[in-house]
Write a structure and sequence with these properties.
Order of helices and strands: EHEHEHEEHEHEEHHEHHHHHHH
Number of domains: 2
Structural class: alpha/beta
Strand content: 5-15%
CATH class of the largest domain: Alpha Beta
Largest sheet: 9 strands, mixed
Oligomer: single chain
Number of strands: 9
CATH superfamily of the largest domain: Spore Coat Polysaccharide Biosynthesis Protein SpsA, Chain A
Shape: elongated
Radius of gyration: 22 Å
Helix content: 40-55%
Distance between the termini: 56 Å
Length: 356
């Protein structure tokens, strides 16, 4: 069995050498090493060449799915494994992967257990707790998703499916591929014996933006119709918040990020919605007013509440550049948001108990 390993990359020089070194020291070496240059402007392609990788320029549209298709088109192996440029694998990863493909002839794709390496800061711990890229310690056949960051597949089967959908530039290409494999009757396996670690580091802004990115595709039809957004997307946002709020009970330091999650989701959604629904009003000011009321009901000290308002206002200013919003947010929509937010309040002691 011949294995082709590839790394799609757009400006990841800070983590790339560690990623490539881990691939080079495998107990079962890859038979072919490809580096897909996704319009890098840093030293990433040179680093890849120094590590003995064949550097390929992606000739297609920009984006992660396109880079994966470039690897698919150039691979000479029967098995193609892609590793993101911030993912380090255990030394026995490819050996375990090969074993899974050999003993499970019915399996088209295999994904490993990807855990966060860094969790010391609140943003990194929040990502590890609320955006895990693994399914735990137990093997699963045909799970909802194999994360694209470590996915390996049988080359011909994926070619028969048409490869990855190039509409997906940064994420969701893995969800889409798993959905199409399932529809075609193909099996895929989550194999935690294949261990990997994620080298990503986040801050408040980046982790909340990434969560929104992860939860944009699949909801696009709700972001063109205010009624559908209120009826279906808004409840999803606040369900996520309530679930995370419970998970945060042992980690008071995560509560500020979780508190801002629904506001980050709503303001990003509403600016997308306005592009098709017309002028729905002054989004950032209206949301800031509701946030102040919610914070007061939470028993949050005013200074912290105003820090949150400042963050929301700054984000809104970035999103609304070039747009006009002279009127308050549409009345019915504002009431729906206010009701959903207030309904999600546990009690007035939430913030005092956190010591924040």
């Amino acid at each position: 069995m011949k294995i082709t390993a590839y790394v799609p990359c757009h400006n990841n020089q800070s983590t790339l050498a560690e990623v490539l070194s881990a691939l080079k020291r495998q107990t079962r070496p890859a038979d072919e090493l490809l580096f897909i240059n996704e319009r890098c402007t840093d030293q990433s392609p040179q680093i890849a060449a120094e590590h003995g990788f064949r550097v390929l320029e992606n000739p297609g549209h920009a984006g992660l799915a396109s880079a994966r298709n470039c690897a698919l088109a150039n691979a000479t192996g029967e098995i193609l494994i892609g590793l993101d440029a911030d993912v380090v694998i255990a030394d026995n990863y490819l050996a375990e992967l090969e074993t899974q493909f050999l003993i499970r002839s019915e399996v088209t794709a295999v994904g490993g257990r990807l855990e966060e390496k860094f969790t010391a800061t609140p943003a990194d711990l929040w990502r590890a707790n609320h955006m895990p890229q693994h399914l735990g310690p137990n093997e699963q056949i045909n799970p909802r998703l194999l994360t694209g960051a470590t996915m390996a597949c049988r080359v011909q089967a994926i070619k028969n499916l048409g490869g990855w959908d190039e509409r997906y530039l940064t994420n969701f290409e893995d969800v889409d591929l798993c959905t199409r494999m399932r529809a075609a009757g193909l099996n895929f396996l989550y194999a935690p014996v294949c261990q990997a670690w994620h080298l990503r580091r986040d801050n408040l802004d980046s982790v909340l933006k990434t969560f929104w990115n992860w939860n944009y595709f699949g909801y696009e039809e709700l972001l063109v119709d205010p009624g559908k957004w209120v009826a279906e997307r808004l409840p999803f946002i606040w369900r996520s918040y309530r679930a995370f709020r419970v998970l945060d009970l042992p980690h008071p330091e995560l509560r500020p990020i979780t508190f801002l999650l629904p506001w980050s989701m709503m303001i990003r959604d509403l600016f997308i919605l306005r592009q098709s629904a017309g002028d729905i009003g002054n989004i950032r000011n209206s949301l800031a007013d509701i946030l102040v009321e919610v914070a007061r009901r939470y028993g949050m000290r005013r200074g912290l509440a105003m820090q949150f308002v400042d963050w929301l206002t700054k984000l809104g200013k970035e999103l609304e550049k070039g747009q006009r919003s002279p009127h308050p947010l549409a009345g019915a929509m504002m009431l729906a948001i206010q009701y959903a937010a207030l309904e999600s309040i546990p009690d007035g002691n939430y913030w005092q108990m956190a010591g924040i």
